[in-house]
Amino acid sequence: MRRATRAIERQPQLASAMVTAVSAPDPAVSECQQEITVVMTDVLSVPMDGLDADLRLRVVRVLSHVWYSSLLGWVNGWAYVGDVGDELESAARLLLR
Hints:
Layout: H1 2-10, H2 12-22, H3 30-45, H4 53-75, H5 81-95
Helix pairs in contact: 1-2, 1-5, 3-4, 4-5
């Protein structure tokens, strides 16, 4: 996740535009939203390969929500970009104790 945060730091305007676009309630972006959900699930699942499949999917779902919420906080100026990775790591550690 640190890698994803570094990508956001390198191209903050692009990342902000992407988060804003994906957050739109417009039905025209629903296909893109689905694709991003699949990508996020894949990215978050890889480090948990040995975990029970059902537990892994539930953890990934929660981490996806934390990641998305943190990104929205950053885009809206409520948080710093570094907080995104920190929040995700904190949630992962709590969930996978």
